[in-house]
Structure formats: structure tokens, C-alpha cells
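Quick question: who can interpret this fold?

. . .
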Amino acid sequence: MLRIALVFAFALPAFAQEKPAVTFQAKSPAALLSHIREVGQIVGGKEAVDEFEKNLKDFVGEEGLQGLNITQPILGYARLDGKPEETSFVLVVPITNEKDFLALLERIDAKVEEVKDDKGAYMLGGEQFEIPTYFRMTATHAFIALNGTPKTVAAKSLIPVRDLHDESETGLFALHLHPGRADKNYAALATKALDKIAADENLGDTETKWIKGLKPMAEMLLAQTERITFRGDIDPSTKMASLDFQLVPKPNSLLALGFAARKPSTNRFAGAADADGMANTVLLSAPAWSKEIREALAASFTDLGNFTKVIFAQGPAANVQPSIGKIIEGMAAAAKDGSLDFVSITTTPDKDGRIANVIALKVNNPAEVDKELRILAQSVADDNAELAKKINMEAAKHAGTAIHTFDLGEYLDKPMRDLLGADAKLAVACGKHAVYIGLGTTAVDTVKLLLDAKPGEAAPVDVAIRPKGFAQSYRSMGLMEGIEKAFGTSDKPLRVAALTATTTAKELHLRAELSLAFIRFAMMVQNAPAPP
């Protein structure tokens, strides 16, 4: 796999025609190598970079990438005018000259054979090329056809480099698809695949709803889209990796009108992200793209509710299931009408190093959840007087909402007691539109904070930390210094992951972002020694 990755790290496949259905462009090999080293340094440190350099040298030899013109971008195309299974992906790789490029292929143990009666055409073999692969070289580029034939790389069939290179492209890589330029056989692939999946007798009702929800979306996209772009990039200065999805609808299409009418996404708990004393916040909003998708998501929650009935069927947990079931039922209803929101916040450690974590869920039946909690409390009081002493119904009240608590401390293991406090509580409140659940010594106060959170615009997914408090949260695991090195010591919110969405009549733009430093942090947590 390493050999394959290194061979094609600088020449990823794409599609095209005379008016290309799909074009692909990546940065030059030199730029890609620079990004790989920078990412390796951020995520794995000097050891990761050294390991990469060793593997690269072992693969391409002492001469390195001699044979490639490492200053020019990687391009690619494929003709979408035949049977889909016969599609050939052509990589357009910049080279210095034929001799040195052939020598590079020899160093990586690629088997090269000249095609009989076709001067200038070659066939590639070896472990790296398990599908028919042919190539032809010009003075400046090698055209490598995966799943190709000699005809694919015939001189008259090659797409000129000048028609593929976009000088305005700045991404690490970009793939552009024009659905209307593809043969109808390709356009039908997606819907046929969904039909085939939906016909599977082993699918449950929920899976079938998901398929039925996706099919009309796929059909609309294929029929009403001018261009789809996938673009990836990495910004070492901010340590953020991003993947963009841009969809340009046909003018005046229903898709364009729908994009124009779309309002910015919101979250009922958006204000929590700005609250003081937070180490990290997570905001999520369920997708509400179409009625079919909402119904499919609601069905998934209903399945989850039924599953809890099975796993909580016996023992003490059986008494808790009705309350959990009501929460999930409310989530399903909120998902169905497109109003399901979620927030999780973790407080900065207090002077004793203790934190609190609270989540809130937008549900459509908070009063029913509260009713089940009261029934549960009464049941415990009737059956177990000692346990009932740990329950305090209406322990506090805020903004007209009762907050119930349960003394949790003695049920926690030592690491959790150290983190949440020996006197930690489970706090639950059922507001007008949401259920709030908190853990920690200050759980009640933190639930109050979320009860006061105001709705507002928010990305569908938004994860942020305050580096100073976030680092302090992991002091007991010995990770504080590493986190401060990765994120700094600011007390201001720092986004570490997000999915944003913006729309106009001209385009839909989705962007997924992830902090490379956050990947490094996740690795640190995974490798941290277990607490004594």
C-alpha cells in the first residue's frame, strides 16, 4: 500500500472529455512533499517526518524523484463516453525527460514493456499495477491510463495540458465534475445503485427509508447541476485541513431557487459557545435537507429507542428505560420536523481540578420526560429507601424549570471522582423545548447556564476549545504541556472541527474543517498511560 500511495501521491486520477466532464488538478510534487512534511511535523513530530523521509528514500532510491518535474502541477482526466466499467483514468504527470522517467519507474520496480506496433506506447506491470495500465510520454508529461488500452494513450486521444491546467486553482487538489457532460450511462449509475440496494430483501424499514430519501436528491442533483467541485487544502499557518464541496446549480432551476431560499443554519443553544468558563463546546444540528431524509433520521432514532428496550429489559436498568425511551422519542420527533439540535459543554477545571460536563437535546416532549423521571423517583422511594435519599427532585429551579439531582460520587471510579469530584451529581432538567443532563460537582450551575443559552446562527457542526482551560482539563493525564504546545494558552474560543454550509442562488458551499493539532491531541490521549 505504501508503494501505491507514493507512486500516485503526486498524480491522482480524474475524468475529462473534449469539454471535460471532470477535471483534476493537484499541486506540484515539490509542494505536495512540503505539505506532507509540515503535516507530519504537526501530527507526529520529527519522528513522523523522519519515518516518511526514510520510506520515500527506500521506495525511490538515492536519486529521489529524479525524472519528475517537481515544480509543475499534477493533472488528470478520463473519458466518460463508453461503458462505465471500461472507464480509463488518465494521470498527467510532469516529467523532465523520457529517459529519467523510465529510470524512475525502474527504481520503483514497475515493469515497463513497449506496446507492439505502437511506437511510444508502453504497458506498465508489477505489484503496483493490478489493472491494465498504459502510458505515453510527450516532451513534458507522461499520460498514464489506469484501466486503459493502447488506444487510450494514442497521441490523437490525449487531452492537451493547456486545456487541463487552471492557473487560478490554489487548493492542494481539486476535482470538478460536470454531470451534464457525462454519458447517460454514467448519470444513471447512482440511481440504479440505490434501486439495487433498496431491492435487497435483507434491508429493514429504516434502511429503506434512507435509500428512498437519497434517491430523489441524487436525481435532482444529476438533472439540475452544472458543476460539482471537491477541493482539499491544508493551511500550515492555522494547522487546519479543509475539504470543500461546491455545487453550482443550473440557472433558474428548482435547485437554484431552493438554494436562494435557504436560511442560515441555527442552533437553539448557540449562545453556549460564548459563555465564560468553558473548556470546550460542541454544537450539532441534525440534517433537514428534505422530508424523506428527516423521516429516515427519525426512524433511526425510533430503532434506537426499541434497542434500549431490549438491552434494558431486565435488572435495575429496566426502571430507567422509560425515561431514556421518552428522550429518544422526543429526539425522533424533533428530527422529523427538522428542529433537532444538540450541545455539549465542559467547564474549565476549578481550583481542585474538577470539571463539569452538560449536554442539552432539543426534544418535542420535555414534559413527558419529566413525568417519567418523577415516576422513576417514586418507584425508587417505594423500593429502596437508602437509594431514594440520593435523589432530590426539584433540587433547584431556574427560569421556571425544575432541576432534579442524584448523588453520583460514590458510584464513580477513582479517575472519574478525581475529574468530576467526590460529591459529583447527575443533574437533569426538562425545559420548554429541551432536556438538559449534567455531571459534576457544579452540574446544577452548568445546567442553569445552558438553560440561559440563546438560539442563534451556528454551523451544523462546530467544535471549539479554549486552549488554556482545555489543557488544564488534561493535567491529571500529564497532557497539559503537550496541549499547550499544540494549541497555545489563549482563553478565547478556537475552532478545531466544523462543518459549515452557505448557499446562494449560484452555489451551495459545504466546508469540513479539522485541526491537525487536534489529531495530534487525539493521538496523545490514546497513547497516554492509564491512571493509577
In short: The chain has three domains: 2-170, 184-224, 266-458. Residues 1-17 have pLDDT under 50 and may be disordered. The chain is about 35% helix and 25% strand.
